[in-house]
Design a protein that fits this description.
Layout: H1 6-51, H2 57-82, H3 85-89, H4 92-107, E1 110-115, H5 124-145, E2 149-157, E3 161-168, H6 187-199, E4 203-208, E5 214-221
Parallel strand pairs: 1-2
Antiparallel strand pairs: 2-3, 3-5, 4-5
Helix pairs in contact: 1-2, 1-6, 4-5, 5-6
């Protein structure tokens, strides 16, 4: 009995750490992508001042214009990564399809999305959890799996349950008795997702073997919650 009260505290700490890592990732992206771009704009403006009426001024102005456009695009992309409006406006299926499109465009891996098009009345916390988990798992595939193709599917199951599967044709990994990956740098992410699934009454099933890819299935109840009130 004494171990039970510790679980919510452990989960709360884990969630805080996860949120902090996400904020840090976004902060680094903002610094590296937008900060550097704006610094380059400042340099180009200095060159433009020196050029004055020189014929090279037109080219410098075009460079500044392009860099500002890219900064605006990066800002919009990072905003969507932080909290994609489509998740709240159009639902889980639409945001996962958007995420798959973004991953295809940015990382050059072929990801296929499929949906059974059945109604899925999900609570807001469940939608957010699934989106964050799918995003993290797809990033893991990009970083570690050496995969050429990945598949994401979502479907409504009997007894008011939603099932989301993420599969890849990558290198796979060894499974421990606890069901976590042994590859360095990846196990903590899966552990975090599994703990969050348990907290919401869901299950995370992991199937992987070296040289035979990985399949991860998330099963969660479709229910409302206090976050929607």
């Amino acid at each position: 009995m004494s171990s039970v009260p510790g679980k919510p505290r452990s989960l709360s700490s884990e969630l805080l750490l996860t949120e902090e890592r996400e904020r840090r990732r976004i902060a680094v992206d903002l610094h590296d992508r937008i900060g550097h771009a704006l610094a380059n704009v400042r340099i180009q403006l200095g060159l433009l001042q020196e050029a004055k009426g020189d014929k090279g001024a037109a080219g410098i102005l075009q460079t500044i214009h392009d860099q500002i456009d890219q900064s605006i695009t990066d800002t919009q992309s990072l905003t969507f990564e932080l909290s994609p409006p489509v998740l709240y406006d159009l639902g889980l299926e639409a945001v996962i399809e958007w995420l798959v499109y973004q991953m295809n465009e940015q990382h050059g891996i072929q990801i296929t999305f499929s949906d059974d098009h059945k109604p899925k009345p999900l609570g807001q916390d469940i939608r957010i959890l699934i989106f964050q988990a799918v995003r993290e798992l797809l990033f893991n595939i990009v970083k570690h799996a050496q995969a050429h193709h990945a598949w994401v599917s979502i479907q409504a199951e009997p007894e008011n349950v939603v099932s989301v599967a993420i599969e890849d044709d990558g290198i796979g990994f060894e499974m421990t008795k606890a069901g976590y990956m042994t590859r360095k740098g990846g196990g903590f992410g899966l552990f975090s997702i599994q703990e969050r699934m348990k907290y919401q009454g869901g299950v995370l099933d992991i199937s992987s073997k070296p040289g035979h890819g990985t399949r991860i299935t998330m099963t969660l109840p479709m229910k409302s919650n206090d976050m929607e009130r």
